[in-house]
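Data card: per-record layout.
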Amino acid sequence: MPLMGAAPSPERVSSATLQNAFAAAAAEYRVPQSVLLAVSYLQSRWDGHAGAPSVTGGYGPMHLTDARTALATAPHHSEGTEDPRGDDARPALRPQPDLSNAADVPARLSTLVKAAELTGLSPERLRTDPAANITGGAALLAFAQRDLGVPLSADPADWYGAVARFSGADDSATAAAYAHDVYDVIRTGGERTTDAGQRVALAAQPRLAPRTAQLRQTGLRAPAAAGTECPSTVSCEWIPAPYQQFGDDDYGNHDLGDRPKSQSIKYIVIHDTEGGWEGVINLVQDPTYVSWQYSLRSTDGHVAQHVKAKDVAWHAGNWYVNAKSIGLEHEGFLAYPDSWYTEAMYRSSARLVTYLAAKYGVPLDRQHILGHNNVPGPTTATVPGMHTDPGPYWDWAHYFELLGRPVKATGRKNSGLVTIRPDYAANQPVFTGCVAPGEPCAAHGSSDVRLYSDHDEKSPLIKDVGLGTTPGTGVNDISSRVSTGQQYAVADRWGDWTAIWYLGQKAWFRNPPAQPTAVPAKGVVVTPKDGLDSVPVYGRAYPEASAYPAGVPVQAVSPLPYRLPKGQQYVVGDKVPGEYYYAVSFATDAHKVVVGKDEYYEIQFGHRVAFVRAADVRVSAS
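The structure for this 622-residue chain is written out next.
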């Protein structure tokens, strides 16, 4: 597909235009300019991020890595009070993971050091000067080409092996997937305005056929792909999460199931790891802790599968969602400190999600492709402890472009619904707490839009009664935020402002016609049935008591601390029967799927989704 555009920021490249920097570095190190441009696009989409590091300590347009501290951070599953299993039928399990056996920083996370050695440029300059960073990337590609014994050819087809090596992958399938993406960028071509306001262009070469046989010269190992459930378009290996019993009555770290035969898969949940790859892989192999189906590596998009799709992993903090979902962990940090994710990981993730969605019938929309921060607390007590990854810096608009479902207008002007759709690069709300509590985060594009109690940015922010805290600008405070792709019913309009129904309140956001933060939409909404002042809202769609067979304890249908008032409308994502997967023992003979007669509508209620009983609401088209 054509390369995506981005709005400029005030930052500017001082030493040369970025296009000239690519040309100069390519000439100096005798690397085809198209190869250098395409590698950089796959690393960073040509963005420099003002010298701030990526989630794995990568810097600049070439994503040169220097991540000596990236492996020292505990993963997000060890933070807060969220029970990743999210089932009050079984005691919560919150052990602290042991990361002491995490590996040393691998070579793929220290390419900036090698680039400094090859170019004689200082590490600081390679981090902060985009032109120098591009020079470092060219030097690394030329070094890889010479190391393979291949001439420094002017033909981009001759650089397949060097591109595969540049990925930093330690297996041939990952390196090949990375190189394939680079050459796909060259064949497609395109142009884009970067976050520094630089226009960069790459001429398309649609007939270019790289010499893929060079992969054999790289000496990379074959991956352990047997047993994986991945499309052929990604590199995938099997690193199983153990299903083991420990102690007298306990086990971990997932449950065996028979999906989709026994119950449907409705959701795919996007997480970030809040930790480096090696520590996270160690964590998922701990039988006493948590699990998820897939992990994705930032530097090259490599995928590891840990739990079969038929089985239920413990990842989302809500048992109903866990039992109906597949969890994907993306190597990264929600706010460390600038939190940008690589194009290689976005593309690999999108290919995997497209494959899974088609296989299991999961709709490609924001009420089925959820962030962990969109998963509701299952009960009132759990709401404050629910997690907030992948955070405001995950580029949902770009991700859905890669999924082949771009976020766009589906309704007419002044329609009754809107889809949140800010310009990611230009939309830079102030967040705090990325580096230290209360301190502003680095200015950065965001998928999130802030909500106010009136059409005035000096008015109070919207309050989430379930959190019981004063709303603020903290990077983890989702009480007064909406995100790209989410849909809401319009409650009011005032000049450049639009109000939506949100958590039972009228919530305002700036939506000027010249730079809209939402686009018109159409869809189905619910409101309380006539005669009802309000109806309860739930964090899980459990069956009625009469549906439970003997031997399966009845699970409470407990409402959250919210109400859906009359006169308000909320967008419907799905209609589902009440369902509960009983699995609290290591032996699977007692496991049962309980399906009730009561039905629920999944709705976009606040930043998170929620459920209302179909018997309580009236449905209408907007």
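Known properties of this structure: The CA atoms of residues 491 and 501 lie 6 Å apart. The longest strand covers residues 570-582.

See the next section for split statistics.
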